[in-house]
Design brief:
four-stranded parallel β-sheet; 4 strands
């Protein structure tokens, strides 16, 4: 896909402890194909806060094509979320608690939605796809 056709996409940074963000993006791409303007930032324990801030800032700049950037983090209150929240603003939105359904939905919701709409849609979709299997399986058939 050329850079010109990507300009309408909201940029995405998946941020996590260890390699979770990289593997989550890889799993989503195995299901839906390549995710353009997406980058994983994997935080390692030995990295300094300054280094993590630089990594996040560089990733945001790399994926921002003018429509803003959505940062998905693994855990609210963890270092990836705390660093990400320092970038929160009109052109950057942060969702904490990323899951695979969110990343799959992401493939189809970045065109035609602004940053806030896409963030809200992904949050709701991710929450809706959390299930307690015993409850689902024990429901009577309709």
């Amino acid at each position: 896909m050329s850079r010109e056709t990507e300009t309408g996409l909201i940029g995405v940074v998946a941020a996590s402890h260890c390699m979770l963000a990289q593997e989550m993006l890889a799993a989503a791409e195995m299901i839906v194909g390549p995710l353009r303007n997406c980058k994983a930032v994997c935080f390692k324990p030995a990295q300094s806060v300054d280094e993590l801030i630089k990594l996040m800032g560089d990733a945001i700049k790399e994926v921002d094509q003018g429509q803003g950037v959505l940062i998905l983090t693994d855990l609210f209150g963890g270092t990836p979320a705390n660093i990400s929240l320092s970038f929160q603003g009109p052109k950057v939105e942060v969702i904490c608690g990323m899951n695979l359904p969110m990343l799959i939905k992401l493939a189809g919701c970045r065109n035609g939605h602004n940053l806030r709409e896409a963030a809200s849609l992904l949050k709701e979709y991710g929450q809706r796809h959390i299930s307690l299997a015993g409850e689902v399986l024990s429901r009577p058939a309709k």
